[in-house]
Amino acid sequence: MSLMLCFTVNASAQHQVEYAYDAAGNRIGRVATTLRLAVTPPTRVSQQPVDTVPPSVVPAGELSVKIWPNPTKGIIRLQVSGRRDDSPVGLRLYSSSGILLKESEDTADIIEIDLSGYSAATYLLRFSCQGETKVVKIIKE
Questions:
Q1: φ/ψ (deg, to 5) at 11
Q2: How many CB atoms lie within 10 A of CB 129?
Q3: Which of 16, 25, 69, 83 could bond to 33 as cystine, CB 3.0-4.6 Å?
Q4: Phi and psi (nearest 5°) for 140?
Q5: Which domains does the chain have, with CATH numbers?
Q6: Against a cut of 0.70, is the pTM above it?
Q7: Cα dist. 49→34, 77, 84 in Å?
Q8: Cα dihedral value 49, 54, 59, 64, nearest 10
């Protein structure tokens, strides 16, 4: 009596490998399949919000914060609405491991944060205003 088990392992986004085993657990077969991915040519990225990809809107109590572009290649913009008397917005940028990288305070309507000096990674942006605090994940490409 022979028992054949079949398992599928995704080795990466482009390859799929299937293994077959007998009843004793010995591998008796392997089939590798290459998946074809559609590639689109690069396009010019605008620094302004695009209608087809709206900025992230983060509710923070009475405040509303728009963040764009996210993911970013350099400069990220925040627009805070609902502030009283141009209250300052406290900003802290952290690495994904929790290390404080940058700290600032700003009262502008649209706040720009330059991430071009940082490597491609995921960062955490903590902003606080009028006693409200929110943390947002920022992706730097």
A1: -75, -35
A2: 24
A3: 16
A4: -105, 120
A5: 5-34 (no CATH), 56-140 (2.60.40.380)
A6: no
A7: 37, 9, 25
A8: 30
The token duo for 18 is: 């299937």
In this structure, how many other beta carbons lie within 10 angstroms of the beta carbon of residue 64? Answer: 14
Total number of residues shown for the chain: 141
Distance of CA 4 to the CA centre of its chain: 42
Q: How many Cα atoms sit within 13 Å of 10 on the Cβ side? A: 4
- CA 100: distance to chain centroid? 18
* Token pair belonging to 64: 């509303």
Beta strands across the sheet bearing 5-10: 5-10, 15-21, 27-34
CB-neighbour burial class of residue 123 (10 A; exposed 0-12, middle 13-18, buried 19+): buried
Instruction: Walk along the chain (141 residues) and give the pLDDT tens digit of each residue.
Output: 555 555 444 444 566 777 777 777 777 777 776 665 555 555 554 454 443 445 666 655 677 888 999 899 999 999 888 887 778 999 999 999 999 999 999 988 899 999 999 999 999 999 888 888 888 999 999
